[in-house]
């Protein structure tokens, strides 16, 4: 449902992460896997900065439609030949040992704990020893009270695209209610709503989960990215 608004209202946040990942992508020598590629806002940078095969994993058809439109024809030529789009969940991947860089943004915190732990095992399997994983920092605790945040506004012709998200605690999880509006001359033309649940996870608990999967929490990469690696034997 939110695919229509993703590039319009979320591109700025993804762009910051993408720029931070350009260096690690350029250093990749085996392959890159991006799970939860969405509309390809980060994928585009990973491709442009690297010279290795790139695997973009996106199970949602609406998001994948935008992703494929972004990759072809702009990727084109030799870059396009390096990109494979996987229409499956990360847990269904079969890419053992095919990457020395994995990227997982805005996805892990939305998985129930058992699925999240299975994701770490999957990522550990696809990384070669010494390979790196980058993920965004999950929320560490439940919000004490509902928190509202604007997603900004973008003008396209006579229309204004805008949105907001309200996050609040619900049964030990964080519920995020997104509302998107398209307005013309002050009149609402279209409204879309979507909700997501996030599981809070402290850094200490995350480190323990990663260690159980054979990964090590290594440090931070601005802005708000965590660097994880698969230790050498």
Report on this model:
The chain has 233 residues and is α/β, with parallel strands linked by helices. It has six helices and eleven strands. It folds into two domains: 3-138 and 201-229, Rossmann fold; 147-198, CAC2371-like domains (S-adenosyl-L-methionine-dependent methyltransferases, Single Sheet). The protein has helices at residues 3-27, 43-49, 61-71, 77-81, 113-126, 203-212, and strands at residues 32-35, 54-57, 83-86, 99-104, 127-136, 147-156, 159-170, 173-184, 187-198, 216-221, 225-229. The strands form two sheets. Strands 3-2-1-4-5-11-10 form a seven-stranded mixed sheet. The chain has a four-stranded antiparallel sheet with strand order 6-7-8-9. Helix 1 runs parallel beside helix 2. The longest helix has 25 residues, at 3-27. The chain is globular.
How do you describe this structure in short?
The protein has 233 residues and is of the alpha/beta class.
* Integer tally of domains: 2
Mind telling me which CATH architecture of the largest domain this is? Answer: 3-Layer(aba) Sandwich
Low-confidence stretches: none
For the largest beta-sheet, the strand count, sense and barrel status come to:
7 strands, mixed
Strand order of the largest sheet: 3-2-1-4-5-11-10
- Overall, the morphology is globular
CATH class of the largest domain: Alpha Beta
Mean pLDDT: 94
The named CATH superfamily of the largest domain: Vaccinia Virus protein VP39
Give the tally of β-strands.
11
Supply Rg: 18 Å
Q: Report the CATH topology name of the largest domain.
A: Rossmann fold
Helix content class: 25-40%
Provide a count of the helices. 6
Q: What's the helix-strand series?
A: HEHEHHEEHEEEEEHEE
**Residue share in β-strands:** 35-45%
Cα distance, first to last residue?
44 Å
Q: Helix/strand-derived class?
A: alpha/beta
């Amino acid at each position: 449902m939110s695919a229509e608004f993703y590039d319009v209202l979320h591109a700025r946040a993804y762009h910051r992460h993408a720029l931070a990942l350009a260096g690690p992508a350029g250093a990749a020598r085996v392959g890159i896997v991006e799970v939860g590629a969405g509309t390809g806002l980060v994928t585009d940078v990973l491709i442009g900065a690297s010279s290795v095969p790139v695997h973009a994993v996106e199970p949602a058809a609406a998001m994948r439609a935008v992703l494929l439109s972004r990759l072809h024809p702009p990727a084109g030529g030799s870059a396009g030949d390096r990109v494979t789009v996987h229409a499956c969940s990360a847990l269904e991947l079969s890419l053992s040992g095919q990457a020395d860089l994995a990227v997982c943004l805005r996805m892990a915190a939305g998985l129930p704990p058992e699925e999240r732990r299975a994701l770490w095992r999957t990522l550990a399997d696809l990384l070669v020893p010494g390979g790196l994983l980058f993920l965004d920092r999950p929320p560490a605790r439940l919000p004490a009270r509902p928190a509202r945040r604007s997603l900004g506004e973008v003008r396209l012709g006579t229309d204004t695209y805008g949105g907001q998200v309200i996050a609040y605690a619900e049964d030990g999880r964080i519920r995020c209610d997104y509302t998107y509006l398209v307005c013309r001359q002050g009149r609402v033309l279209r409204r879309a709503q979507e909700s997501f649940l996030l599981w809070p996870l402290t850094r200490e608990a995350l480190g323990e989960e990663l260690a159980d999967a054979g990964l090590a929490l290594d440090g931070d990469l601005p802005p708000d990215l965590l660097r994880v690696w698969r230790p050498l034997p």
